[in-house]
Design goal:
Length: 239
């Protein structure tokens, strides 16, 4: 069936040994930034693993621009145009900032190392520092910059605000908005509801390895009963 979706997820199951963690997940992503929200252990990172080929799904299919990615390794998915910012950043301790960027840069696109440095002046200042000599915020800047150097068509960001100071969270939100404004599709996985709602237009809620609701960010922001039921937030509580 014809669709305008860039990313199509159909009936996806995923298992870790005997643990069944994704149950028939259906999800489409077009040009509007989409946030995936849910409490810990609801399958959000497992969904990222399935999209990126870091753990093979056991049923269903995942298509990118109409191409079934089943069986493709992570590097092939990156070459197709999917940038990934993993939870925990996964910065190499023994590489400098500049070495991180040089090994992934795909020349000829809108994003270059110079532009990453313009966007993150702190990274330019720290370009000779090893990964283990960066703060959490600097590591997150590096993880995002590294993904952007692939000049992707889709950015998958898994908990990019985790553990960051409020000022850095605000910078991450601004950057996500910039990425989306340049026509890059955004899939943002977050536990921080307020950060996600500030960055995306649509949200999907995950519970028990399933997508149980999809709505606009504005609708979720105004529905405290939904926040409590699926995210465990009481009225006025941050998440």
């Amino acid at each position: 069936m014809a669709t305008d979706a860039l990313l199509e997820i159909r009936g996806v199951d995923l298992r870790y040994g005997s643990s069944h963690v994704l149950h028939g997940v259906d999800l489409n992503l077009g040009t509007r930034p989409l946030g995936i929200l849910g409490r810990n252990g609801m399958g959000k990172t497992s969904l990222c693993n399935a999209i990126m080929g870091l753990h093979p799904h056991s049923a269903g299919e995942i298509r990118f621009d109409g191409v079934d990615m089943t069986g493709l390794p992570p590097e092939k998915r990156a070459q197709m145009g999917i940038g990934y910012v993993p939870q925990g950043r996964r910065v190499f301790r023994s590489l400098t900032v500049e070495e991180h960027l040089k090994i992934v840069e795909r020349k000829g696109g809108a994003w270059s190392i110079d532009r990453v440095y313009e966007t993150f002046p702190r990274l330019k200042e720290r370009r000779r520092n090893l990964g283990n000599r960066l703060s959490g915020g600097e590591q997150q800047m590096l993880a995002i910059g590294r993904a952007l150097l692939l000049n992707p068509r889709l950015m998958v960001l898994d908990e990019p605000t985790e553990g960051l100071a409020p000022a850095i969270v605000s910078d991450v939100i601004d950057l996500i908005e910039l990425i989306a404004s340049e026509g890059i599709a955004v899939l943002l996985v977050e536990q921080n509801m307020h950060a996600a709602l500030a960055a995306v237009q649509d949200v999907a809620l995950m519970v028990g390895g399933e997508v149980v609701e999809r709505m606009t960010a504005e609708a979720l922001e105004n529905d405290q009963a939904m926040q409590k039921r699926h995210l465990g937030l009481e009225p006025g509580q941050s998440g």
